[in-house]
Every structure is written in C-alpha cells, then in structure tokens.
Amino acid sequence: MTDLTKLTIAEAREGLKKKEFTAVELAEDYIKSMEAKRALNAYVCETPEKALEQAKASQTKINAGQGGDLEGIPLGIKDLFCTRGIATTACAKILQGFVPPYESTVTSKLLAAGANFLGKLNMDEFAMGGSNETSAFGPAVNPWSKDKPLVAGGSSGGSGAAVAAEMCAAATGTDTGGSIRQPAAFCGVTGIKPTYGRCSRYGIIAFASSLDQAGPIAKDVRDCAIMLKTMAGHDAKDATSAKEAVPDFEKVLGGDLRGLRVGLPKEYRADGLEAEVAAYWDKAAAMLKDQGAEVVDIALPHTQYALPTYYIIAPAEASSNLARYDGVRYGNRVDGEHLEDMYVNTRTAGFGAEVKRRIMIGTYVLSAGYYDAYYVKAQKVRRLIRNDFVEAFKQCDAILTPTAPTAAFAIGDENMKNNPINMWLNDMFTVAVSLAGLPALSLPIGLNKNGLPLGMQIIGRAFDEETVFKTAFVLEKQAGFKGVK
Fold first, then answer.
1. What's the pLDDT tens digit per position in 22-81?
2. Cα–chain center distance at 457
3. Which of 58, 108, 131, 179 is catalytic?
4. What is the value of pTM for the model shown?
5. Is there a catalytic annotation at residue 155?
C-alpha cells in the first residue's frame, strides 16, 4: 500500500469511500509520520489514542454509507483552539496544564463532520510572533530546512510544518496579521484567512478580537475549500460571527478566468522585496493572464501606514484580552506576599518577552494621555486602508500580491532577534488585508535559488472567498508546485 500521508483530503476521502483502505489505516500512517518527524517540533501535544478511537468510529459510519464531509480525515489543531479534555495552552507558560471543559465552535464543527484529531500544534505564544520562536515549547522547524534549521513562520508555524511534512492531512490555523498565510508561504503549502466573521471565534484564545480569524492550512486549494466549508458559519455564541450563508467552495473550482480582472497594487513593490519574489509575482500575473484574466494596475495608497496601524491596534486589544491571566482563576500562579505581588510574579514568569512587549505597547496607547493620539487615530487610518480596498475592487475582482517579502529565514537569525521591527516587517503584505477584514489565500508559486518555497497571495472582496478559491485553483494548476521531497 502506498504511503497514505501523501494523499490530499479529496483523495483520502475518495479512497475511504471506495474502501481502498480504512480510516484506522489512514490514522496509523499519520501517527507513524508524527513519531518519525518529532524533531520538527510541530506538535506540542500528541493524541494518537484518541485519533485511533475516532478513526474506528469513523470507519463504522463509512461502512454504513454514512458520515460527514471529513469522515476519517486526520487533522492537527493549532494550540489556540480550546479542545475539551485535551491540553490547550496557546504555547504559553502561564497556561501550562490548562485543560478546557468545552470545545471551540470550529473544532466542534470539524468533529461533527467526522474529522479525527491527531494532537495540538505548535505556535507563537498567544499567536504573537512571525516565526514560532516565541513558543514556550521552542520553535517548530520548517521541513524545507537544509544546512541549518529554518523557521516555519508564525504564528501558525506548527500547522504549516505539520502539513508540509505530511504529519496531518490538514490543520487549523488562526490569522491576526498574517499568521496563516506567512507560515503557508514559508512551508510551501496553502492557507486561507477567510473574511472576518466567516468563522466563529468562540473557544479560540483571544489575541486581538477585531482581527483574529480562524482558517485552514492544507496541501492544496481544494483541500482548503473543503476545510473552510466545514469550519465556517454563523455562531450565536460569537457576536462577531457573520450571518452569511456558507457556499460550497469546492464547487467553484475549475474552468478558466475569462472576464476576471486581477489587480496589482504598485505600493507592494516595496523596499525589502527580494528580486526573486518580484519575478515570481510577475510570472504569476502572466499565468493568470494566459488563463483569460485581465491584469490591471491598482493603487492602495495607505498601505505604508498598515504596519504601524496594526502594531497599535493589535497590542491594544492584546493588552485588554490578556488582563484575564492574573493567576487567580486559571492557569499558573506564582505566589507573593500580597495580591499585587502575586500578579507581578505570575505575569513575570508566565509571559514571554514578545507578549510582554505587546502588552506594554498596548497599555501605553490605551492610557488616558495617549488614547486619542494613538489608538483613535489608528482606527481612523484603519478605515482609510479599508476604503482603499473598496475603491480598488471597483477596478478588479481579485488582487494578486506576494505573501511575504522573503523566503523562510534561519531560526535564531540575529537581524530578527536583535530588532523586533525586522520580524514585524515580514507581515508587510498581509496586515492591510487583516485590518480591512478581507479574505486572502496564500499558495506556493515556486522555489528560490536556495530551493525554498515562495508564496503568492490572492485577496478578495468581503465574503467572496469563491472568487479567491477559483483564482487560486487556476494559478495552482499553472504553477505545478510540488511539496517537500
């Protein structure tokens, strides 16, 4: 029998249906892969026994001609999603040992569709980081690493690494400023951040509430479409969840792009964009044009303000959200002589350097003397950034940009380590989309001279993931990218 971990979700689903193999055999192959590749540090909590138990139940349903869209499909779950009875820590010391008594809405939907959970995946602490190096468990390692270990991207680095290394059929991720798209680009896989509100945030440990959005990372565009259809939908438990119908995203895949207008924003040819990335951007535009699309130049004039705007709003919301970790109700506690002492000791020991940095920035911009000067002004600029996209979409139906300005860099890179702003600049092409709440997908377009994957980003109108998927599917076919050898 061939290695079942090489199958896409679509292929595995078909094989299960035709009884070419069983759900248990599929789970066993992924468990072997997890065990063989532990050096990648993609998983922080493995649940093989649970996965096999779920696989047996799935096979019973399959044998009876029943089951959901993901029946018997083994998935990895980012450690930001609360999973009942399974440790959920957001890869933070302050939450070590926390086992939720409830399930997040997204993971509930996946379980209801028949998915099997292999375990919890590594990530940056509280999703704050762009390289997975802030994790209390240490960084996930990019499967494309050669001479030296490379970052898998962040914050969903474990998800990107696990999918690329065939340690799960697909994974959940969350994206606040690029945390699905950037790991997908660095690891040579596909990931989509859906429109804000498309997936419920209930049961997802909060970072920045007006930006956080769940989405899938998978082997290809079709698998992302299959995953998102299951993950999405209105949820009464989440006030930001949109009451929008969820289309069958898989049905739009195929055909050419005649009549589609694809925009290229001139502002994205920024300093720091590697020449190879720019060349692949031009190549991707030519591929879409060959398939019938009309390529047009567009302007997103407030792009230059996206990063500073994001790094005011996101830390402000993080400061508010992380105030709940006080050592009183749940999570780790470090005692002191009095209450304030206990707060200080708990947070000093429990939060990492990047989380502390963002809490301090956020608290500062929300303080009485600076609220109007920073936070209120940032919200006004956020509206201008969103308006740029509204105007741009009057000229085009989708926007094509690079996902990241470079390929994956080395773990412990001194330029990133010594200057956090350099790390933040990796999100220069993704944060504007998040601020505008739009859907965007990253897919691998090719390899650079060092044999590392590069990603392209396709951005769509709000709640128009269908156009994003259709465009990405065509580009994927033209690029013909192959995964880790």
1. 999 999 999 999 999 999 999 999 999 999 999 999 999 999 999 999 999 999 999 999
2. 13
3. 179
4. 0.96
5. yes
